Amino acid sequence: MSETRRTSRLRRHARLRKKVAGTADRPRLVVNRSARHIHVQLVDDLAGVTLAA
Predict the structure, then answer these.
(1) Which pTM does this prediction carry?
(2) Which residues face 39 on adjacent strands?
(3) Which of 3, 12, 29, 43 is the most exposed place for a label (fewest CB within 10 A)?
(4) Phi and psi for 15 in degrees, rounded to 5?
(5) Is residue 12 part of a domain?
(6) In a domain, 15, yes or no
(7) Terminal CA-CA length for the chain
């Protein structure tokens, strides 16, 4: 990935993360994709806990 695409993606990610927070009633869904696998987590940001991975 080119450096400008990477920096704009990280900037966009930081801007979105300021607005999005997961709660116990509605946890945040975190998706990490690699070439072979997809990893998913449910995160409660208020308690700072990963509910499921």
Answers:
(1) 0.63
(2) 32
(3) 3
(4) -65, -40
(5) no
(6) no
(7) 27
